[in-house]
Amino acid sequence: MADRVGREGQQLGNYRLLRLLGQGGFAAVYLGEHIHLNSHAAVKLLHMRLPNEDAQQFVREAQTLAHLSHPHIVRILDFAIQDGTPFLVMEYAPGGTLRSLHPKATRVPLETVVSYVTQVASALQYAHDQRLIHRDVKPENMLLGSRSEVLLSDFGLAMLAPHSSAGSTEAMERPLAGTSPYLAPEQLHGRPRPSSDQYALGVVVYEWLCGAPPFHGSPFEIAMQHLSLPPPPLRERLPDLSPAIEEVVLRAFAKEPGQRFASVQDVAAALQRACDEHAVVPVSPTSAATRPAVHPPPAVPTLHIQLLGDFLLISGETPVTSVDMPRLQSLLAYLVLHRAAPQPRAHLAYLMWPDSTDAQALTNLRNAVHRLRHTLPNADAFLHVTRQGLQWQSARPEVSWTLDACHPERSEGSLSVQQAARPEVSWTLDVQDFERALTEADEAERAQDLKAARRALTQAVKVYQGDVLPSCYDEWLIPERDRLRQAFLRALERLIELLEHERDYATAISMAQRLLRLDPLHEATGPAPYAPTTPAPRS
User: Fold this and answer.
1) Are 167 and 54 contacting, i.e. CB atoms less than 8 angstroms apart?
2) CB contact at 8 A, 112 and 262
3) Is 274 found in the same domain as 324?
């Protein structure tokens, strides 16, 4: 077995290993930095040394994985064998794993589960269509990308294990023991199939919903239960859970593959339908007399957030000047732009203070959160803070007498006046307005409505007042800033073409001058007739 001592500071290929991100029985993952480009990647070192006869097998399997291209699959950037140790260079997912975000014994809200399943199922379906099986679906292999999207990692990594007796016995056995809570019966028999991934995903969803896996015990005992025992009904642990949701989850990890859904994509669709139809169950009106008095909460002024160009906050009609530190503005911007999922504290601390020790970075984060909560008006209405992480949210739950399908403890009998008194909040974000205008322009162009496309592009160009937080230099901002800038330049170019098509040459020239100021090397500034996305029918 390969040596497992710390490798920080060592170089593998073109990457220098900065720090350990995680380690298991099969491999260790380091944050690596490209020695020439200064870009970051995750470098996975397998805990084994490959003899020559296994090296070619590793290369073939790695080549297969490198050709996977899907928005919810971690990309393989490079692979090699150095001094007998195989390693993979992968896209770095700064949000960490879903296991770290939702530790064991943690219940995950139903709408979050549906979002996760939709993304993971999309990645698995893509792989299955390529005749590939993941074999190791679990929260530890689900990562959060830079935009809080779920990325499935370690695709087919079990196939990279050595096939000869020269390989490490421990390296081959420990992954099976570590992932036995999610292994399908046929996979335990050594005959995995695409529906084995569906089975594992069903077990994960079961665990997310009720906070505990269906089976317990030693790895061997858990494996035997997967082979022979039915899982405890979800509604025994969540009495108010919709039967439709329970049916979807339990069918996904039925013992017999033929009793599962036809495809993993069908699991996501069925769960979404069950959630839409049955996630909230009305409470009987006979219990109305037991309801506590609920007083309407005070109104919270709309918070207007400007990140494009100069940073600006306005609460109602009052400018907020107290959020004046660049690092505080960067933290607020990151939370707002990545509001789709909670952000782990460790991830935020490293992102904002990458040169500090972990302990110092976490202390800095606590201080920043404390300052933000005391300087941002009505901060607790917008910012959800827990010991594990932070999340920006647009609204609190409405005051209604319903049963929460995933959290019955929040239903009628336990709803407190304090919970009910949380105010509804609203906020605006210029980045969101900019991207919404671009979407409207795309839809108008597809519909051949050039006037609507011009209006939407004009609005997008108007909203874009400059780069995102130009006074901040945090590394996470660089790709976000470049992405929005390129989207703006493309929008400006499309608008110029539309203006020329409508013979509004004066405005077109003004926009072209703006384009040249922002991108002096841009070539598309001469007259050119506008070409619609789809050719218009001839009369």
Assistant:
1) yes
2) no
3) no
Q: Please give the residue range of the domain that contains residue 70.
A: 11-278
pLDDT given at position 424: 61
150 within 8 A of 121, measured Cβ to Cβ: no
Q: Which of 451, 305, 314, 454 is nearest to 392 (CA)?
A: 305
Asked if the structure places residue 527 within a domain, the reply is no
Residues 125 and 189 in one domain: yes
- Which residue type does 23 have? Q
Answer yes or no: do 235 and 101 share one domain.
Answer: yes
Structure token digits, residue 336: 């707002």
Cα–Cα distance measured from residue 312 to residue 317, given in angstroms and rounded to the nearest whole number:
12
| 346 close to 358: Cβ distance less than 8 angstroms | yes
| Contacts of residue 226, Cβ cutoff 8 Å, sequence gap at least 6 | 180, 183, 184, 185, 188, 215
User: Do 397 and 445 belong to one domain?
Assistant: no
Domain boundary among 390, 408, 425: 425
Positions marked catalytic:
136
Same domain assignment for residues 18 and 79: yes
Q: Where are the alpha helices (DSSP H) in 279-357?
A: 326-337, 345-352
Assign residue 144 the CATH number of its domain: 1.10.510.10
Are 338 and 485 part of one and the same domain? no
- Give kind and range of the element (H or E) at residue 413: none
Q: Is 284 part of a structural domain of the chain?
A: no
Look at residue 467 in the predicted model and tell me its pLDDT: 93
Residues contacting residue 539 through CB under 8 Å, at least 6 positions apart = none
pLDDT means per 10 residues in the chain (539 residues)? Answer: 66 92 82 91 84 72 82 89 86 89 90 92 91 91 86 69 35 43 92 94 96 92 93 90 94 95 93 75 43 55 92 91 90 91 88 87 89 87 88 54 37 37 72 94 92 94 92 88 91 92 89 83 48 41
Question: So what's the pLDDT on residue 250?
Answer: 95
Q: What is the pLDDT of residue 53?
A: 66
Q: 101 Cβ partners below 8 Å, 6+ apart? A: 95, 144, 341, 342, 344, 388, 389
